[in-house]
TrEMBL record:
One of the essential components for the initiation of protein synthesis. Stabilizes the binding of IF-2 and IF-3 on the 30S subunit to which N-formylmethionyl-tRNA(fMet) subsequently binds. Helps modulate mRNA selection, yielding the 30S pre-initiation complex (PIC). Upon addition of the 50S ribosomal subunit IF-1, IF-2 and IF-3 are released leaving the mature 70S translation initiation complex. Residues 17-30 have a biased composition (Basic and acidic residues). InterPro entries: NA-bd_OB-fold, RNA-binding_domain_S1_IF1, TIF_IF1. The gene is infA. GO terms for molecular function: ribosome binding; rRNA binding; translation initiation factor activity. One of its GO terms (cellular component) is cytoplasm. PANTHER family: TRANSLATION INITIATION FACTOR IF-1, CHLOROPLASTIC. Belongs to the IF-1 family. Residues 23-98 form the S1-like domain. Component of the 30S ribosomal translation pre-initiation complex which assembles on the 30S ribosome in the order IF-2 and IF-3, IF-1 and N-formylmethionyl-tRNA(fMet); mRNA recruitment can occur at any time during PIC assembly. It is found in: Cytoplasm. Keywords: Cytoplasm, Initiation factor, Protein biosynthesis, RNA-binding, rRNA-binding. This is Translation initiation factor IF-1.
Length: 99
């Protein structure tokens, strides 16, 4: 009877239980500001200059889902933009309205 060259393992230790994180003070994620806009200019790297309904202009990029499903965005399209409450000059295009 041949023995393998690997050392024999001892009894298995119980897996560590996960720490309880229910009572820790974790900062909540800020909600994005959602607005409707129109694309005014296409820029490189799937970036666009968009104009909000209130007249403000900002730079927005196509969301990953928009790129994944090859949704084309061209100047003149009506879109829905998510803005961070911390930086209202940059946005993410999350939906293109059908005209």
């Amino acid at each position: 009877m041949a023995r393998s060259s690997t050392p024999r393992r001892g009894p298995r230790r119980p897996a560590r239980s996960r720490r309880d994180t229910s009572n820790t003070a974790e900062p909540t994620k800020e909600e994005a500001v959602v607005m409707d806009a129109a694309v005014t200019q296409a820029l490189p790297n799937a970036m666009f200059e968009v104009e909000l309904e209130n007249g403000h202009k900002l730079i927005a990029y196509a969301a990953g889902r928009m790129r994944r499903y090859f949704i084309r965005i061209t100047p003149g399209d009506r879109i829905r933009v998510e803005l961070s409450p911390y930086d209202l000059t940059r946005g993410r295009i999350v939906y293109r309205y059908r005209d």
